[in-house]
Amino acid sequence: MAEVKIQRALLWDVDGVLVDSEPLHVAKLKKVCKRHKIDLEDAHMATRQNFRIPDRKGGMKDVEMQLGGAGDKNIYWWAYSQHLQNAGLSETCMPPKSYGFISQEQWLAELLSFYLENANNENSPYRIKPRENMPEMVDALHKDGTHQAVVTSGIPRQVETNLMVLGRNASGEERSRAFAFVLDADSVTLSKPNPEGYQTALRRLTTITDAEALAVVAVEDSKPGVIAALKAGACCVHFLLPKQTPMSTEDFEASGLDADAVARYRYAQTGKEVEQAVQKLFVAMEKQEGLAPLTRKEIQPGAPRQSAKLEI
User: Fold this and answer.
1) CA dist list (Å): 7 to 16, 215, 289
2) Which is nearest to 223 in space by CA: 67, 117, 110, 101?
């Protein structure tokens, strides 16, 4: 593929990656859960939980996922499962309002209200700020022609608030203008770890470039996000939060990810390490050094992913 034109693309998660918002996210979830008599502990956020979520056919399916990074819509269904357990009711009881629980719309509204009250409040211990080196990295990628976009499980108003925190670049432009598009919780049917958001982003990227192939890297802070990106076929840099651990062999196996996905995974603990890992992945795909860019054909729905050559 030496003669093929390759376009670089970086797909950003927002919470915990572009901005340091995880303390506020956990606080809002604990606040709303407590209001509705649900006990949400840090251990719940850090470990895989078993519960049921809606499927594409209008029914419900069993899932096992880590709550941290699972998205507010998925966590609603975990909270409902806890409500049913507390009430001694069957997990098949539906709809939630008929069994004494709030609607998902009310759940999201209460979470958003707490979030907006604290996000830019100078007196709040949960005030959000950019994560180290991320604004500068957005500027550098924009300058060198890398396509950038956002793929997040956050709800729109919350995402808008977060992106504003990135501020302006040296030219006085809002940094959020560097993103070709933003896919949020309302842009997809299924949240991370489902790959729908990243699959949609890959298809959108093909509409804004004439390149025959795309060297795509995602940056994620949570395991559900990493799983979603890898299942879509992108490379992924896992930007670890304090006390987080990288993906383990057990995590890959439990998620149904193979050796090809392992080859496309990196992790980093600092913003500088993220930048270095992203650049190395771009170069590896461009030079065919164990990794390959995604062709337009591979990005189409149902297309097989070309196997990576790298073994790690």
Assistant:
1) 26, 6, 17
2) 67
Ranking 238-242, 249-253, 264-268, 301-305 by mean pLDDT, the lowest is 301-305
Residues paired with 216 in a beta bridge: 9
Query: Residue 312 pLDDT > 70, yes or no?
Result: no
In sequence order, what DSSP letters do the residues of 145-194 get, joined into one string? T-EEEEE-SS-HHHHHHHHHTT-B-TTS-BGGGG-S-EE-GGG-SS-TTS
Look at strands 6-12 and 213-220 and give their pairing.
parallel
Domains contained in the chain, number: 2
Residue 303 has pLDDT above 80, yes or no: no
Structure tokens at 218: 């995602």
User: Is pLDDT of 301 > 90?
Assistant: no
Whether 173 and 200 share a structural domain: yes
Beta bridge partners of 238: 220, 267
CB of 98 closer than 8 Å to CB of 91: no
Q: Which two tokens stand for residue 187?
A: 């842009």
Judge residue 232's burial from the number of C-beta atoms within 10 Å of its C-beta, 0-12 exposed, 13-18 middle, 19 or more buried: buried
Answer yes or no: is pLDDT of 310 > 70. no
Helix ranges (DSSP H) in the chain: 22-35, 42-46, 72-87, 104-119, 134-143, 156-164, 196-205, 223-232, 249-254, 259-263, 271-286, 296-299
Per the CB < 8 A criterion, the answer to whether 78 and 232 are in contact is no
Residues 57 and 184 in one domain: no
Last residue of a domain, which of 101, 119, 137? 119
pLDDT single digits (tens) 116-163 = 999 999 999 999 999 999 999 999 999 999 999 999 999 899 999 999
Report the pLDDT value the prediction gives residue 305, as an integer from 0 to 100: 56
